[in-house]
Design a protein that fits this description.
By secondary structure, the protein is α/β, with parallel strands linked by helices. It has two domains: about 180 residues, 3-Layer(aba) Sandwich (Rossmann fold), CATH 3.40.50.720; about 120 residues, N-(1-d-carboxylethyl)-l-norvaline Dehydrogenase, domain 2. About 50% of the residues lie in helices and about 10% in strands. Bound molecules: nicotinamide-adenine-dinucleotide. Nicotinamide-adenine-dinucleotide binds next to helix 1, helix 5 and strand 6.
Length: about 325
């Protein structure tokens, strides 16, 4: 995409993290927020955050990174020369609509606008923009400079070239882009998180286990693998024959559990598709090696958790 200058519109929790993502990758970052106290506090916050990142060897030079960031009193100044704009205003349709209309008026028509929206699709607040084909969702996880995944979600009118360019930009700045083909409430990340949360709430409400024990199930169980592999790879490694074997063995169990929430079992053709995709990533002959790799990662993670006192203590 060649975006050498990026604008941050809304510099709260997420917008300020985005500023670090771009500046540490060498891009010039122009920051705007309508609140004076946010604008005045930005540099001090960024300096502290960058020094911590430098100490952890996560940025090369805190001072040089800070020097690439500038804060402006008006939106127009902040957008000047920006070829990519990250909108991170409040998660409200009215606020996002107003902010996007203002960006639309002031932006270079060749620039691209990514919204940090956690779940409101871009079609809900960009329809009236003259440059609406250049608006899309680029949803991060908080804080974006420490958690790399971002979800790219086009509105029905988003130019596919913009999505491709933002994907390239995200790769360039060290984020991990995930592309959705079209809008869906909650996107992928919050739908996955929502499924787990809905079940956690239901188990708790029905009295099957305490909050702490449900949390421990993830923190001291599922989450250990999930910190370095996703659910499909997890099950691919959890049956001798891989993902299809897992579906064969445990599909009925999951269907039984999910019966109250789903009206059909995992369809065979979907399993076959997943199996084919997994085999492109990892051939069947490499499953054992990958399991050994997984276990070595688990061991390193266990040592880290122990050294950092992250493990649930015996007394709790
Ligand atoms: N906090 C999270 O965990 C998280 C994670 C991912 C995405 N998001 C999304 O990021 C966005 C921002 O969330 P946040 O947590 O940073 O909120 P926040 O309240 O910390 O920051 C929002 C900022 O937007 C500014 N703002 C309001 N109206 C504006 C306008 N018209 N123009 C420019 N700036 C304006 C506010 O002054 C404020 O500083 C939301 O869409 C949110 O859903 C949040």
């Amino acid at each position: 995409m060649g975006a050498r200058t990026v604008a941050i519109v809304g510099a709260g929790l997420v917008g300020s993290g985005w500023a670090i993502v771009f500046a540490r990758a060498g891009l010039a970052v122009r920051v705007y927020d309508p609140q004076k106290k946010i604008r005045d506090g930005f540099r001090g916050w960024a300096e502290t955050a960058l020094k911590e990142l430098e100490a952890a060897l996560l940025v090369d030079s805190a001072a040089e990174t800070l020097a690439r960031m500038s804060v402006f009193d008006t939106l127009e100044e902040a957008l000047n020369g920006a070829s990519y704009i990250q909108e991170s205003v409040f998660e409200r349709v009215d606020v996002k609509t107003e902010a996007c209309l203002a960006i639309d008026t002031a932006m270079d028509p060749a620039a691209i606008v990514g919204s940090s929206s956690s779940g409101i699709p871009a079609s809900a607040f960009t329809e009236g923009c003259a440059n609406r084909a250049r608006f899309m969702i680029n949803h991060p996880v908080n804080p974006p400079h420490l958690v790399p995944v971002v979800e790219l979600v086009p509105a029905p009118w988003t130019d596919p070239d913009c999505v491709a360019a933002v994907r390239e930009l995200m790769n360039e700045v060290g984020q991990v882009p995930v592309s959705l083909t079209r809008e869906v409430d909650g996107f992928v990340l919050n739908r996955l998180q929502g499924a787990l949360l809905n079940e956690a709430w239901a188990l708790y409400e029905e009295g099957y286990a305490s909050i702490e024990d449900i949390d421990a199930t993830v923190r001291d169980g599922l989450g250990l693998r999930w910190s370095f592999m996703g659910p499909f790879e997890t099950i691919d490694l959890n049956a001798p024959g891989g993902i299809a074997d897992y579906a064969e063995r445990l599909g009925p169990l999951y269907f039984g559990m999910g019966n109250s929430r789903m009206d059909h079992p995992w369809p065979r053709e979907v399993i076959a598709r997943a199996e084919a995709e997994r085999r492109v990533e990892l051939d069947a002959g490499s499953l054992a090696d990958r399991r050994a790799w997984r276990d070595s990662q688990l061991m390193k993670l266990a040592a880290f958790r122990q050294a950092n006192n992250l493990k649930r203590s015996a007394s709790s």
